Structure formats: structure tokens, C-alpha cells
Amino acid sequence: MNLLADLSWYDIQEYLTGEDRLILPLGAVEEHGPHLGVGTDFIEAEAIALGVGKATDVMIAPTLNYGMSLSQMGFAGTISLRPATLTDVLEDILHSLHQHGFRRILIVNGHGGNTASIASAVQTAAMDLPGLQVKNFQWWTDEEAYRVIIETLGEQTGSHASLGETAFMLAVRPQAVKMGRLTGRDAPVLPSRELTTVQNFAKLYPDGIMGLNPAKATKEAGEALLKKCIEICAKELKQWQ
Ligand SMILES: [Zn+2]
């Protein structure tokens, strides 16, 4: 596997003589209900990235563990970048990668709060970086990937610390899952024009779970989801001209 962190600059220069693709996993450090570790989002993104790297030999950059989680700051352990900080960090990463010859970047994003900053950074960087192409994969918004959870667990849309995400963690980091802590309550995400912020998140979702009670999550569903995510991303890389 081509882990950028394990390679010397000689190795990376050699990789870049015949290749310009890179996998960049992004995560967050934020509450994930009473039952999942705060590293959930970067743990999941990294698990997908490692699987894709193994399947394709495309180089994997170190995971950016921190993300934009301001709305979760009412919960102990959440560590957030501000949206503008994350945008700046991503732009700097894209500029560095481009300078060395990376052109096609597959972002594996593990956290919804990062999405706006990713779009902002990519739009801005693209103004200055000829040939830059970026794809962004997010397992819970990807229709093809999430179908696995719809079919196995019946949760219709990907949410936060609910069925799909709990299944994912049972598959990739079971020691960070404490099913005995669940309260058994559903926390449906109701349509609203009000944006979710630190002012209202903890009132709407007091234990930090958004969505259905994840008690029925299974390791098998999580493994199937991970496998599907790896397949989709590997295909995106292989077909990327
Ligand atoms: Zn998450």
C-alpha cells in the first residue's frame, strides 16, 4: 500500500513520474451520541481510504483528523476548526499537492460539516492550479453506497450516529462502540428552515444522535457498507481519465 507518510521524498517523486492521483481522507473530532467515540468520522474515512488504496495502489495522504464541528461544541470532546480555517487548510493542502505534481485528488470525506469548506477550497484553488481535478466521496450521501443500509437496516437516509454510522463503527472500530449506553429513543430529523448551530443542536438532539435509534445496527451491515464504499471509490479512480 502506498501510504504517503511511510514514503521518502525519493519514493514520492518516483510515484509521480507515472501517476498523479491521490486519496485524501478528511474527518472530524466530534460527539457521536452516548455510544460512539468522538473520532468516528476520521476513523470511517480512513477505513475507506485504506481499502481503496489497497485495491488500486493509489497513494493515500495522511488523514486530516480535524474538521468543522461548531454545531457540536455543546458536547464534551468536540474539537472544531472554524469554517474559514478548514477552507484555508484544504486550500494549502491542494496547493502543496499540486506543486509536486498531484492533479487528481479523491477526497474521502467523513463529516457533513466539512462539505461547504471542501467546495469553497476546491473552487478557489482551481482558479490558480491548472489541471486540478477533485472528486468528493461521502458514504452517507452517496445513493449507491447508502442503499446497503436501506436494504439491510431500513434506515432511509444517512444521518449522524444513527443506524448506518453505528453499523459502520461496529465493522471498523468495535472497541469505540458502547451499545449499552443507548437510550432507545428515536431522534427524527424533521424538516426545518432553521439552520442547525451550537445554539439549537443540543436542544434538538440531547444525546447527540440524529436519526433512528441505532440499537439494531449490525457489524455485517457495516462491513457490507464499507465494501461498497471501497468498490465505488476504486471504480471512480480507475475510470478517472
Ligand atoms: Zn459521523
Beta-strand share of residues? 5-15%
Which cofactors or ions or other ligands sit in this model?
A: zinc ion
- Which CATH architecture would you pick? 3-Layer(aba) Sandwich
Number of strands: 4
CATH fold-level assignment: Rossmann fold
What strand order characterises the main sheet?
2-1-3-4
Protein topology:
Blueprint: H1 9-18, E1 21-26, H2 40-56, E2 59-60, H3 83-100, E3 104-109, H4 115-126, E4 133-137, H5 143-153, H6 163-172, H7 201-204, H8 219-238
Parallel strand pairs: 1-2, 1-3, 3-4
Helix pairs in contact: 2-6, 2-8, 3-4, 5-8, 6-8
This protein binds zinc ion.
Zinc ion binds at residues 32, 40-41, 111, 160, 165.
Q: Would you write up a description of this structure?
A:
The structure is a single chain. This protein has 241 residues and is α/β, with parallel strands linked by helices. The protein has one domain (4-238): Creatininase (Rossmann fold, 3-Layer(aba) Sandwich). It has eight helices and four strands; from the N terminus they run αβαβαβαβαααα. α2 (40-56) links the parallel β1 (21-26) and β2. α2 (40-56) crosses α8, α3 crosses α4 (115-126) and α6 (163-172) packs across α8. The structure holds zinc ion (ZN).
Q: Summed up, what is this model?
A:
The chain is built from 8 helices and 4 strands. With 241 residues, the protein is of the alpha/beta class.
List the defining traits of the structure above.
241 residues; alpha/beta; Rossmann fold; four-stranded parallel beta sheet; globular; binds zinc ion
